[in-house]
Queue: 3 jobs
Job 1
Amino acid sequence: MRDVSIIGVGQTAVAEHWDRSIRDLSVEAIAAARQDAGSDRVDVLFVGNMLSGELGGQENLATLVADACALLPIEAVKIEAACASGGAALRAACLAVGSGAHDCALVLGVEKMTDHLTDGVTSALALAADADYEAAHGISFAALNALLMRRYMHEHRARHEDFAPFSVNAHRNAARNPRAMYRTPITVDDFVGSPLVADPINILDSAGICDGAAALLVAPSSEARRARRPPVRVTASACATDSLGLAERRDPLVWQGVADSARMAYEQAKVKPKDIDFFEVHDAFTIVSVLTLEACGFADRGSALKLAAEGRIALEGDIPIGTMGGLKGRGHPVGASGAYQLVECVLQLRGEAGEAQVKGASIGMAQSVGGSGSVAVTHILQA
């Protein structure tokens, strides 16, 4: 397998783009990535998306995007892995370029969610749960994560306000990201007083519904130095799975698929958790951040809340997370979120993250999670 690098990135602002279509957002992000790379070559397009058919009435999405970007007749495929779709699209590109099948792969993560009422979006998101034993009984992802949070609070004698540092950190970082949706800092009191969604989860525990697109260009590392911007090498790309239904797991607080994906990535990159300079965590809910940090080896079981309380997840901490706001602060356009995480990783490793820059960052990790930890795609990138 050839070494591969990311040579260009582009993104739209994350927002409620009521006046723009999924096609419009895709074209903008792709044009930005190609300009960033200083290259027009594209051999294959992988589009990470979860809900274009359900919410937009549009499947065959990759061909639509290829046509809109004047890329026909290249190979174009949509990749769906629930909320991990954006990360899965980059993995497909890494395999395509690493194997030698293609020399320049374009990755797009895109989602258009805000044209529908919240109830419709909630129902669509439930498609990533177990249709027979979870979704059919009306349980939403907020409710599933509320069960996890309640169990975690019981086992570790935690209070709901102990989760506040995760949201406070996300909004503080998002305030430094001009493309983030939620750029207003919050306090612990704001978090505690936020309206409930599914007890004990409240609005400030939860990432918001939004629209956006992010794109990356992938090429062999041997050719990457020709790019306009400094290339960032992909040193690990790993995917692992777990059962869809929480009730089928021996211990719902052990996210084994997340742990396995991270372990394989560490082995590929020949690094350990202590070597990671920052972590773009899939913080769809604060409890997801907690379970992920513990599964990935950044905290022992039951100690992730302490990690956050001590400020160690902040930009100046020893394991900064969600450096440009994460899903919570930037927004969570589900199929696109993994691509946004990776774009932000690249900006950090180039030293181009502006006010959100992690000083001296040379190794970054991004992990996209679909369902309740049922699929996890982990990438490790190095400057």
Job 2
Amino acid sequence: MTTTTTPRTTGHAHTAGSGVSFARVLRSEWIKLRSLRSTAWCFAVIVVLLIGFAALGAALSSAFVGTGSTPSQQQSIAVTIITFGSPFAQLVAAVLGALVITGEYGTGMVRSTFTAVPRRTAALVAKVVLVGTSTFVVSLVALAIALLVATPLLAGQDVDVDLGDGRLWASVVGAAAAIAFTAMIAFGLGAIIRNGAGGIAAAIGVVFVLPIIFGIAQGLIGKAWIYTLNEFTPPQASARLYDYPLDGTSMITMPAVDGAVVLEPWQALLVLIGWVVVLFTVALALVKRRDV
């Protein structure tokens, strides 16, 4: 007589991959993110750019401050100088966001990630959350240091910074958020393209080339609809988060055109959230359909 033995399926084998909690996925992705040399280098460059440009602008602020400037004008100039490095930091954040996902495709590590998390959604959500959160924290700390460094330098140039101004702190937080959103948008583009060079090129194109194109178009055509369309692009919406307009005049964005839409900071925030959600949704759909 032969006895047929049915192999027992252990709970661990039955739930492998599908039973991984989001907290564990988040912890795993955090370990990967902070162990990458590119992450450390990008964050270091972001810190240097934000503090360095603020210090340089503050030291040369006499070129921007006219005689008889009002306290409001001085405050607007101070905020502009403190956040002066934000567009350059966004370029670095775009590279970081794209590299986080395309680097895994390049090395093949993405196979291990999706084997451990076969449904893939949790892995991508963890990645984009960590990229956005860590970039925001690093940028906010750097901008706070930039404010501390620039304030005495500005005082030496007869520019008094009102640290009790809520709009100043809103601009500082907005600049950090703008950098973080840029990283998340670049992550979405990188997940869609999957190629390192292509993802970085697309991200830099959105951050750097798009404003140039709209600037040229605005100068040549000058229609209100062009300005309105530009308001809904990531670079312009990002600028609205930390803009400090004075009497409707901004020092970091193009002059408004009659009949054109000008976003309020909360509206710009919604626009950037929309960009992140749309790109992430497309990326997630493609990741779920592809073999790797």
Job 3
Amino acid sequence: MATMSETTFLSSDGRTQLYAREYRPEGEAVGIVQLVHGIAEHIARYDAFASFLADNGYIVVAHDQLGHGKSIGDASTQGFFSAEDGWSKAVQDIHTLHEKTAARFPGKPYFLFGHSMGSFLARTYLIRFGAGLDGAIISGTGQQSPLLITGGRVMSDMEIRRHGATYHSELLNNMAFGSYTKQLENVRTPCDWLSRDSAVVDRYIADPLCGFVPTAGLLRDMMGGIGFISKQKNMDRMRKDLPVLFISGDCDPVGEQGKGVIRAYKGFLKAGLTDVTMKLYHGGRHEMLNETNKEEVYQDILGWLNGKAGR
């Protein structure tokens, strides 16, 4: 039976204590998986997946990012990274947890799993710190057009000038997420794009730490981060032999129903990576770990990890 423990560590912002979890398997661990969650959610939502990996021999570590979950300083900082270099600080926090964990378990294969906004952070991490990894899983990602990225940054900057970086902008929120249910049939809630499992959607809506309106500062940071990872010259800096697995639903609006995932996958190949795999799940929406076929997804991820860990 796996065990879970909780701790905190200091963010790169120099003042916020970040909430973190660690899941330990019984006996000798096969490897380590570090999880990076998405926007307007928190790491406790990954408990079932983390427990599954730990039950199958993996140490799992994760933290609530700045402005999320139990890493919120006060109500004004919910959905906010930092006044300056927020994206870089979030990436550095991932690196801090990586370094702390790798030092405690030397020699273990180390994998990074990033979902949604966490996938964009993970892709930034691969460019900046990928040398310390043995593989990465990119979940619920996309490859937005330069025009969309530029427009998002311009609108975010306008909202920041009007209201400040900590302003929770309904305008930006609607622009970023408001159209995500348009291609779905029989829509029950504005969050149906997350999963076909209505119970998952209802729990998300009922969770006070989920679904909040992000700040203008966070959305500006995210647009900047997506712009960074979309530039081929930056992608070309990734380690060529790093194994990468893309997973997504082919009905996920973040990945443009698979088209954006395919563009990202092809970008990795163009950058010279030699071990890149992609799986699009038919009918799947944004959160494949919480989909109606999640058992299949869990097993696919475990099989990939075991193969790369030499199990």
